[in-house]
Design a protein that fits this description.
The chain has about 180 residues and is of the alpha+beta class. The protein contains 5 helices and 6 strands. Helix 1 (about 45-55) crosses helix 5 (about 135-145).
Length: about 180
């Protein structure tokens, strides 16, 4: 596999960040080889949410693989591949040594998990989400609860929410408790 020439950095005092993606392909997910070192385990809640987002939206991100003599070995996207084994899926092929692949496998998801939650931004975002998928609605409700947007085990909407007649079209539905209202936040 030919290596791409890396561009010179705009600022010579800043080290160049190597682009390790060498190809983009569409590959039948069932042909991808699960990484035997994958330490991430996918429970039923995650499986249901993944199936829900794939059904409702589809693929919006590529799986990441390393090409080996045995074939394409997954570094990221194990659950997506497992969920859609008969579908051709987007795949980024990366040129990494085994040690680099192990480092990516160990740290790729945890680095993303280090992001902090902006509660106000999350609140505004989830107010716009309308999903018919139960697992996704449960995921969003859990995110709201974890961020302190909705108190744990809230059964009723806050008193300052405007109530509406059941025959009037509503603007908002709380993903946690299902309360519907119009106007305001």
């Amino acid at each position: 596999m030919a290596k791409k020439k890396q561009p010179e950095p705009a600022d010579p005092t800043v080290p160049a960040i190597r682009d390790r993606i060498v190809d983009f392909r569409r590959v039948k997910a069932g042909m991808l080889i699960p990484n035997e070192k994958n330490w991430r385990k996918h429970g039923e809640k995650q499986r249901a949410a993944m199936a829900g987002i794939l059904r409702e939206v589809g693929y919006v991100d590529a799986l990441m693989v390393r090409e080996t003599d045995a074939g394409y070995v997954l570094l990221d996207g194990h659950l997506r591949a497992e969920t859609t084994p008969d579908q051709e899926v987007p795949v980024l092929v990366v040129d990494l040594t085994q040690a680099e692949a192990d480092l990516v496998l160990a740290t790729f998801d945890p680095i993303a998990a280090l992001a902090e939650t902006g509660a106000a931004e999350l609140d505004a975002l989830i107010r716009e989400i309308d999903t018919g998928d139960e697992a996704l609605a449960e995921l969003v409700a859990g995110m709201a609860e974890d961020a302190g947007i909705v108190p744990p085990d809230a059964k009723y909407a806050p008193e300052d929410f405007k109530k509406v007649d059941e025959n009037i079209e509503v603007e908002h539905t709380c993903p946690h408790c299902g309360f519907q209202w119009s106007g305001g936040k």
